[in-house]
Specification:
The N and C termini lie far apart (51 Å). The radius of gyration is 18 Å and the shape is globular. A hairpin with a 5-residue loop joins strand 4 (138-153) and strand 5. It is 40% helix and 20% strand. The protein is of the alpha+beta class. Strands 1-2-5-4-3 form a 5-stranded mixed β-sheet, sandwiched between helices.
């Protein structure tokens, strides 16, 4: 069981390394089901974990998966008139990616961000509140494919429900047109229209996926130089329009 949890926390961690967000890191120990007591019980720190990142060649079905989820969330949040975008590598045709659909949802105010939480959590979207402190401008949700619900007792009286399964959707809710929004859309738009950089980025991820990593941060650091280079060109192009 603990090996399975390790794999989910690291490989499918509830934070996508979204290119340029210095604050977006894999907070393994702070994961919402791994509090101090559970960490000590599972001896996570003492065991060596070898990680391989699952990166796949572009799959046209990713677009269909986005459209399916987009329809669901647009109906759930219709009163807020959200702007919904497909972002991340699965949104870029012929780009290799982890098979997790990233969805960016834009709202008019922070008040809207807070009020949507109860709506989303009532419809199979798991809210990761722990990231609000690091990224207060975002509300982050994930959706699992065929989740298994388990109960973890953290004290004699307190219990938490844990979803174990394959994450296949990340949802990033933020204020429309803020810096977070612009960076994600700019990166996607640039790679959609610049074949050479798209090939470089895609090939790098495929090569790195063949290696083993001690954690997700090490994998992200290996991509960082190219990501920063592309990001700057993407922002320059996006903001000049």
């Amino acid at each position: 069981m603990y090996h399975q949890l390790d794999k989910i926390i690291i490989e499918e961690a509830p934070v996508v390394p979204l290119f340029y967000d210095e604050l977006t890191r894999f907070f393994i120990i702070k994961s919402f089901w791994f509090n101090k007591e559970f960490n000590e019980f599972s001896n996570t720190k003492e065991r060596k974990i070898e990680l391989k990142i699952n990166v796949e060649p572009y799959n046209p079905s990713w677009k269909n998966q986005f459209e399916f989820e987009c329809k669901i969330v647009s109906e759930l949040l219709i009163n807020y008139q959200p702007i919904i975008e497909h972002i991340g590598s699965t949104s870029i045709e012929n780009c290799a990616a982890k098979p997790i659909i990233d969805i960016l949802i834009g709202f008019r105010s922070e008040k809207d961000l807070n009020s949507i939480v109860s709506i989303m959590t009532q419809h199979q979207y798991v809210y990761y509140k722990l990231y609000d402190e690091e990224m207060p401008f975002r509300r982050f949700f994930v959706k699992y494919k065929n989740p298994i619900s388990q109960t973890v007792f953290t004290t004699d009286e307190e219990k938490k429900f844990v979803f174990i399964g394959k994450i296949y959707v990340h949802i990033h809710c933020t204020i429309h047109k803020n810096d977070f929004w612009n960076r994600h859309v700019a990166f996607r738009n640039y790679l959609q229209n610049h074949e050479d950089d798209k090939i470089r980025y895609s090939n790098l991820k495929l090569e790195l996926s063949k290696q083993e990593w001690k954690d997700g941060n090490e994998y992200n650091d290996a991509k960082n130089e190219l990501i920063k280079e592309i990001e700057q060109k993407a922002l320059n192009s996006y903001l000049s329009k």
